[in-house]
């Protein structure tokens, strides 16, 4: 069975929403545990304002990570993980479930999905997850990651103690709207990411499936990991400036009388004037190193769990295939 169809392997019905929820949540949790340190390094690099003057060179991702571990203990690399884990299950559930729903909506009458339809489904899925889950989750995560304090020193008390406290503090001091600061940029980033991600993954998966002895058989995990790794690297290069501006915007507290667009333009203008064009791509190395392996883990675990769950659903009493 081609990857460019709404049907499951062997022409079966597509996976249920429950399957997408469980498989997507498990895949997302594994991805977060493996790759979160690289995300923390990426955020610190994006927030750094060091310039190439007076001997102050920008730190690379390895040096940034080593400095975080030295000053804040290795646990500092996992700041904000609670916020990520709290949102990862609904995020991945929404991503895969909405993607499959949009794909079915855009499919032709015979169930085939064109490249344009697949791209659009990924775009809409990315926007959906950004509005529903990702934006508030990232505001909390970035506030935690931006704190530079040692987790081994009990006297070094940070403003935000954990994800729940950070969320409560932001709501109390800045209101509900603060959790949705940068929602337009987040939606743009997630939309372009998932459009590129799902399109590349589907095309590569279709090519590899056609070259198998049995084109209807699922791909082995190492192949889904490989194409997930490749597809995961596509998005970050195309929308790095959006992600950098979004990170700085979400770190800033709101100012009275300022609009979201005004703050975005102010941040972009200041970056251009004081730090140069390279600042817009700061953190691209750890971002690719975090997103690409993350997608490799996500797709491999998702496809594996989906296969296990769907196989169990087929083995219901009476040999009936049920929802």
From TrEMBL:
Main localization of the protein?
mitochondrion
Regions that span the bilayer: none
Identify the stretch annotated as signal peptide in this record: none
Say if the entry is tagged with keyword Transmembrane: yes
Matches recorded under Gene3D superfamilies = Mitochondrial carrier domain (1.50.40.10)
Q: Does the keyword Cell membrane apply?
A: no
Query: Which Pfam families does its entry note?
Result: Mito_carr
User: What keywords tag this UniProt record?
Assistant: Membrane, Mitochondrion, Mitochondrion inner membrane, Repeat, Transmembrane, Transmembrane helix, Transport
Family classification: Belongs to the mitochondrial carrier (TC 2.A.29) family.
Protein name per the record? Mitochondrial carrier domain-containing protein
